[in-house]
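Exercise 3.2. Students should predict the tertiary structure of the chain below and write it as structure tokens, then compare their answer with the key that follows.

Predict this chain's 3D structure.
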Amino acid sequence: MRAPRSYSQATMDSATAGCLRNPACASQVGQDAILPWLSRAAARAAEAAAVMRLWEAAEVARVEGVLVECAKRANLEVNDRMLGPGQRTTRAICEEKVVDANGRTVKRGVLLGNAKHAAALECVQQELGETDAGRFSLEPRYILDAKTGRTRWLDPEEVARWLAAGQFFLLTGTIAPDVVLHALGNPLQAQRVYDFKFPCPVTNPPRWDTYPEGHPFAKKEQGEVYSLLLGKDTSPRLVSPSLGVK
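Answer key:
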């Protein structure tokens, strides 16, 4: 006895035979007819390949050039705006005590750093937003899930609601690198991680911040924690106006 064909096999054979008998349902490329089901399978395979494609070395180098340029541009523009045209930071300027928008007394270096950080991120969005949309994220939030031991990406809209409601405790233990290069549409498949640093004065070397006492990652440096949650292969790096990518 002949073994019965499976339903899927019978369906495919019928569709194939019918299409071959009807030229209207096949598109001709040279002498070969491309069957609809085969065309759809190829399209799905192409889509999957596009999603999984990570950044190539030349692309990463291009992005790092953009990051450095944005850091330099932000440094100069904020100095001109907040200190005066042509002015540069000095140790005295950086240590000066000022009152921020929330009424807190902070060092001027902190205000300058925050403004430069925001300007650099805006610059990156402008430079990469059209050409590389979906393949990079600015300040994405991640957390190490205590139950599964796996890293979880937090929906930006959910994070925004927490912040608007003053539920800052929900962000305890999260990380938010400045720039993450990742697979298309998948922030969890990170390939490169960067943080902007604007030392004040600019002659100071950039360095990773250390998490304070009481934090889930107390005494660990940012770069170390980024590697822990996103993988060592992401090679977390600092970007500064004076030293570039390090």
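Discussion points: The radius of gyration is 26 Å. DSSP finds seven helices and twelve strands in the chain.
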